[in-house]
Amino acid sequence: MKRQFTETEWDVINSMSSEWMQLDMFHRHWALKESFLKAIGVGIGFNLQRIEFNVSPLQLEIGKVYKETKMLLDGDKEEDWTFEETRLDDHHHVAVALGKQEGLGQKHSDVCSMEPNQPQFIVLTFEDLVASGIPVTPEDSAYWDNFCSKQESPVKRN
Question: What positions does the domain 4'-phosphopantetheinyl transferase occupy (predicted)?
């Protein structure tokens, strides 16, 4: 992962007082980098060392949205980009990149942020996600019976 983060970013990650806090800061930086890549519409082939995040504040409160983190692109501060960050819980960071898109192979689009104090994210269960699902094909119990008849692990042959 040293190729994906700048030396400054690694210094911030490693400056955290425990391994869990270091992992947490690692995930935060990764969410920020991923948000930028998605915003400009490129894949992971983009050289992630070209972008550097100066995270602020260091600790994020669960459920609160922050916009203080700044990004440098090729060493230059990018004033036109805003990164909205929040913590969903103790283990999940979310980052959304908002900013200019011209000059990056994209058409410019105006992006509006949600009103302050409105819920930004809702954690969904698997049941929530599939509740409105419609089967593509009719249910066939033979498929399930066939699946259940298979052995859990391959049989070793001598």
Answer: 1-96
**Residue 107 falls inside a structural domain:** yes
Q: With 0-12 CB in 10 A as exposed, 13-18 as middle and 19+ as buried, what is 129?
A: exposed
Tell me the residue range of the domain where 14 lies: 7-113
Question: How many domains are contained in the chain?
Answer: 1
Q: Taking a C-beta distance cutoff of 8 angstroms, is the pair 101, 83 a contact?
A: no
56 within domain boundaries: yes
Residue 62 in domain: yes
Extended strands (E) in the chain: 51-54, 70-73, 76-77, 81-89, 92-99
Write the pLDDT tens digit of every residue in 79-121.
999 999 999 888 889 999 998 655 444 433 333 444 455 556 7
